[in-house]
Write a structure and sequence with these properties.
CATH superfamily of the largest domain: NAD(P)-binding Rossmann-like Domain
Number of domains: 3
CATH class of the largest domain: Alpha Beta
Strand order of the largest sheet: 7-6-8-9-10-11-12
CATH architecture of the largest domain: 3-Layer(aba) Sandwich
Order of helices and strands: EEEEHHHEHHHEHEHHEHHEEHHHEEH
Distance between the termini: 68 Å
Number of strands: 12
Shape: elongated
Structural class: alpha/beta
Strand content: 5-15%
Largest sheet: 7 strands, mixed
Length: 382
């Protein structure tokens, strides 16, 4: 081990014998009492020395045997130590790709804070390179989500959409103005390629060709250009994903409202069918309204989609997706986050599995349906 105090955490002395690592309450850790000798040892924990050399330097400073080991154990337990050589073979392979790692160093620094164990950050960053994610939709939200996932180190990001890029598809971080007139899927592939810090691992491409089939999808992010399909997703469109157990996350902008979620874990959380049935329970007119909206009658040829709101939704959706790929269950799991212009007050609503839905989500013994969107019937009438 080559102990290194995590450089991403800002260090400051609260008083003479107490050190605080980190600024915000979410990750800040206070250590004390810290005497002068221990403070000197902290300066030596920079990842350039192994434990034997650190022990030798401690003895040269007149410190008792065991002081280094005690400090290292203490800081490791507090989640404050990293090891620049930890993380296993995939992390070692990433370290050898210096150009790629340099692009991802801010992400690595962030991951080192989130995951306390030494090498935990780079292990997850390296793990992203083996992931395959599909983004459905290449509009203002979808293309930006795809670019962000690629830039975050996800090895394979595929974008599915039809038609050609329109001027209103262009967005900072998404499809560029030069793509207008090109096929959306082609322009999105080029965007993903430009955004990637590195090419996907060779082993993945070789395994794919040898097996004759694509590797399994880690996640599908559904970002339709018409945000209605994210706000009120068609359950039939997700049948195959439910059957194959493929996780999927909905995100989009409808009119002037942004939505992120739910992240559906088939067999574990509520699905699009649960969402639709729950809304129909609360609003007897919902199915009639939905049928008219989906039919396309009186629909504007250019759906409303504020560029700043679309970018916020894309960023939030991509962050939730990456959190899931790193092994977490983000706040969109079985829930929807929603915000409307102009106040942008993000609110979360839990979506409960519905007893009448054909999916096998857990929790169907509960009759309560807690997802609620928009005004009640009484409010609308008033």
């Amino acid at each position: 081990m080559h102990p290194m105090v995590k450089p991403a955490l800002r260090r400051a002395w609260r008083e003479r014998q107490t050190v605080q690592f980190g600024v915000t309450p979410a990750h800040a850790v206070t250590v004390g009492p810290v005497d002068t000798a221990t403070g000197t040892l902290l300066e030596l924990l920079d990842g350039t020395r192994g434990l034997p050399l650190l022990r030798d330097e401690a003895r040269a400073m007149g410190l008792p045997d065991g002081q280094v080991d005690t400090l290292v154990k203490r800081l490791t337990a507090a989640g404050l130590l990293d090891d620049p050589e930890a993380g296993g073979p995939t992390a070692d392979a990433l370290r050898k790709r210096a150009g790629s790692l340099d692009r991802l160093r801010p992400d690595l620094a962030s991951l080192s804070i989130v995951y306390p164990e030494p090498g935990g950050g780079i292990r997850r960053l390296a793990g992203r390179r083996a992931m395959r994610v599909q983004v459905r939709g290449a509009g203002r939200v979808g293309a930006t989500v795809a670019a962000l996932l690629s830039a975050a180190g996800v090895g394979r990001v595929e974008v599915l959409d039809g038609g050609c890029t329109e001027p209103w598809d262009v967005a900072p971080g998404g499809l560029p103005a030069e793509a207008v007139g090109e096929r959306r899927d082609t322009a999105a592939r080029q965007l993903v390629r430009r955004s990637a810090p590195d090419r996907p691992p060779r082993a993945d491409r070789g395994a794919t060709s040898a097996a004759g089939a694509e590797p399994a999808l880690s996640l599908i992010v559904v970002c339709p250009r018409d945000g209605l399909a994210a706000y009120a997703p068609d359950p039939a469109a997700a049948d195959d994903w439910i059957t194959t157990g493929t996780p999927h996350l909905y995100a989009g902008v409808v009119e002037s409202t942004g939505v992120v979620g739910p992240l559906v874990l088939p067999g574990g959380t509520a699905c699009a069918g649960c969402l639709e049935l729950g809304r129909a329970d609360r609003d007897p007119s919902w199915r009639r309204l939905l049928a008219q909206w989906r039919s396309g009658g009186r629909r504007s040829p250019v759906p409303a989609c504020d560029i700043t709101l679309a970018t916020a939704v894309a960023g939030m959706a991509a962050a939730h997706a990456v959190s899931f790929l790193d092994g977490e269950l983000p706040a969109s799991t079985g829930a929807r986050w929603e915000a409307a212009l102009p106040l942008l007050d993000w609110q979360s609503e839990r979506i409960t599995p519905h007893l009448d839905c054909a999916c096998s989500a857990d929790g169907k013994s509960e009759r309560e349906h807690t997802s609620g969107f928009g005004p009640s019937h009484e409010t609308m009438a008033g």
